Amino acid sequence: MSSQPPAIIDRQPWLHRVLLLWLDPLFRLGATRPLVDSDIWHLGVQDTAVQLSHRFASHWGTAHDRRPSSLVRAVCRTFAREMTVVAALSVAYSLLVQCQPPLIHLLMTVVTRSDDTIDDDTSGYWYAALLAVVSLVSVTILDSSFFVTAQLATNVKTVVMDLVLSQSLHCPDAATSSGDVITMVAVDSTRLFVGFVALPWLVVPVVTLPLLYTAIGSMMGWQVGVAGGLTLVVVMAGGYYFAHAAGNLRHDLMAAQAARVKATDELLAGIRVVKMYGWEASLENRVTSLRDAELALQHTYQFGSELNAIGLLVAPTLSLMACVVVYVVGLGHALTPTVAFTAMAYVNIARLPCNLFAFAVMRVTEAVTSAHRIETFIRSVLKAILGELELVAGHMEATTTRVAYASQEPWLQQTTIRSNITFHSDNANISDHYATVLSACQLLPDLASFSQGDCTVLGDRGVNLSGGQRARVALARAMYRQDADLVLLDDPLSALDSHVAKTVFEQGIRGVLAEKSVILVLNSHYHLLPFADTIVVIEGGRVVRQGSFATMQQHLTSLSYPQTSKTCPPPTTLADQLLPLASPNPTSTSSHVRTANPLKTRPPVDESSPLLVVAPTSDVALDTYVAYFDASGWHGISVMAGVGGMYLLSQGVVVAADAALTSVTSLCLYVPLAIAAMLLLFTRGICALLLNLACAKTLHRQLLHAVVSAPVPTFFDVTPLGRILHRFTSDLFDVDSRMPTSAVYLLQCQFQVLGIAVVCGAALPCSIVFGAPLVLLVTRIYTRFSHTSPALTRLAAGHRAPFVAFATETLRGLSTIRAFDQTEHFETNGRRLLDKAQSYLLVQFLASRWLQMRMDGLSAGMVAAVAFCCVWSRASVGVVGAGLALTYVTQLSGFLSRAVMGHAEVAEHMTSVERMVEYIGIKSEGAKSEGPVGGSRSTTALAEWPSQGAVTFANYSMRYRAGLELSLKHVSLSVRGGEKVGICGRTGGGKSSLLAALFRTVEAASGRIMIDGVDIATVDLATLRSRLTIIPQDPVVFSGSVRFNLDPTLTTDDAALWHVLRQVHLADVVGLDYDVAEHGANLSGGQRQLLCIARALLRKSKVVVLDEATANIDGDTDRLIQDTLRANFDHDNVTKLVIAHRVHTILDSDRILVLQDGSVVEFDTPAALVAIEDGVFKALAAHAGATLP
Length: 1189
Prior knowledge:
The chain is α/β, with parallel strands linked by helices.
């Protein structure tokens, strides 16, 4: 990092940095072509995550501190210098802007004089020039404060995101909720960013408001100043009361958001099982109900926030009304135009600070609440680390520090197979050891079948591999670590068939790992026990026996293991390993495999990789805006027109009220108009709030339904889970929270600018001469900005998603990461992704400042033009017109820049809507271009279907996605109703594809599948899947009660639920109200699988599929489960399709199906298959030592 060249911002002269001139080349480039990654500059060394974390560490308490500092205090101390600069610039702006009203007063004095002398003209022009200079310098100082604020806020967000990720890496699995972490990374960090961005608008009102009411008191009398100031304070206090009441809901609101994100994460992570069980509607309803609870809190919170904002918006109007009433009625003075408009100029200074003070208070309140939430998480992590495993009795000694580990459920990353195995070691030159490990884990044939070999990029959690392939890749990672003293293997062989498991054990565990200490957990494949040096039998968490196989053999009779010889026959040659098992065409297959190179010398760029970020560069289309407003339930164009009309009406009333403030006789008109304006402001704010909440609710519902209904192979298999979650976190946060604020503020500022333009044009027609070029310049600058800003926004969003995906993926593999001592590497990799994302965020935010600075400069020029026009035409312009023009135009510098920036911010947030709408438009599964769409048979016609459970494949072929090879090739077979069919074959042979075809998670390429004579392609997906039952290979459970996990539809009575719990021997372990942790962290792998089996028992389907259902269960439990399955399913009216790698579990099947390379190679009774000379099944049974009963 130290060798990194200075960032472009650090190489700029001081003036270029302040005026953001160094961004001009980027905007010129963006106007000529779409921006790409290489166009964006990296962060300066001092702004990188590693440097900021070191800087922050000295101010952050450790777990051993008795009184650790709070996160807010630590952040403030870390960035005290930057915060001081922001405060100083804000104070300077507040002092300088106070000079505008006195200069307007002097100009009004010149305009009201009846004589027309050269001295008066000269003085007037000097006053006009001073007013222009003050306006330009003040806004430049303010914009400079935002430049510093941008870097400050970005650095704070970097520190917080890095802190959450680094602490999560050290946190025990059970103590980490992925929903909480994702919310903190994606939402809470953004709230902290926005909170620090709002800091100047906390300082400016505090300095500005006391000064301006002091000035009003000195001009109109101290009673007037006190009355106006007290009115402002009372209204602001009332607004703060509502804001504080809403702020009390922040913690509950964020907890509700985290709960929804967690439920969404679980739903998406288990989407395959959810679809196969037909639970989409139930799980959707669960997330939707959590969303409704969140929106109820959001409604209350935003209502309070809106009352605060409206109160601060009308506070200057009420304050001016109080000043005028006290001055005229209370003190009996005549209200001259000069006094009236000077007072109006002072009060108008308060409008922008008051408006933004509401924003600042809410955003800072949110930031503090988010900081406390993150701080609570960090403290809980530290406590969990200190007590990760509590030793309650005895002692433990370990002489090793280097461990290799393969978990029971394989954890794989979204990277190449090679990187998963080498686990980020230096693999530029692949060693012989690597090739040996691949051979020992029987991965060479699999790699040869992939076009990119070991450089194939895996999908989310290795979804494009079979269960056995995932297990062998994870096992290869453990074997590859050469410096490990101890290798922990948590039942990695259970997902492998007996032949492969035996070969992997002989060549890998007894071969590659022969010189290492190995602890191998077995829940199956007990025929390998004779090769162990020591056997430990554990029951109920206790060691009940320990010793060698010779001394333990008589005590192992309860374990289901066949006798085996003392040697496992190794493969003869590498070519033999590459040959598919018992290939029907050895010659052609051998030739094909030998020409394939499973080891690529250089990882190629995978153009189809889901990790690549694609950033569309076109502007946000009008259709996106219409879709957003359509979500309100009304026609989009009509809603847009209605909202615009309401803002136009309210702004017209405001202008009329200000114009009426010219004499005592108009006071009776001014007060009612002012009150009417305030009522309209209140009405439009509440309507906009309700409109946004309706849109947000509908968009989430449509997004959730579209994603849940999306096809597995063309969406979930190619889209990282982190990217999908990004739509439900950051993008949804934009729609929920940032969009309403930005949209309301945009409309308010746009119509304020329109009011300024109308007043200046009507009062000073000559100002139109200057206004026309101003409009052209604004249009040109904004056009250049609009060509670049959407691309920056999309690039920034596209680089935030990989970090969220990385954090999500990392949380699932904490045990593996720590076992391999890779915590530091993952911190480094996370920081690399974070720095990339933050560089885009900083440039994106500074681009907005670039626009604001230029708008403010043009506004200062317009102030000069109007001021000079007042002096030049003072003989003809009326005093009322001049006063209105001057008091209004001085507000232009604030409202013009924020109107244009507001448009950019809304467009930025609309890119979030655009991404959501893109997902909403995903084609649902079951929809086909021809033939029945999602099934044509009615549910009524299939009320008793299937009655027999006969399954027929008729010349059926299937591929997962267009362009891929067939996964099933012309499969033809018939399963009789009530028959039990065992399905076996080498890993990757097509067993899982057969199930995907049966449940229609993948549609047919050709051929048909019929159940009881009904083509399943004509059956509605929900109906089809509700009539089938599967016990999946990977157990999927959800956080919540056991009752919910057994039946998410909550339609089954407790008696039936208890019955199935007893059947699977869990009744004494858990109850129906037992709270299952996230991802089932408080259950063992076997217990999670038992819950899945209990679900199957509830459904009473005619067709039941067991996909390696007892792979993760110990032998004793396996026998109990097998007995339960036989008792409940082994009768003539239930068809059983059983996939198992342990051949002995399917020997009692009526028939056995052997698959290889997606084709049927054998299908007959066990006795008939064993009788086939050189038969595939016979070889499998012989390798497993299995004999027919």
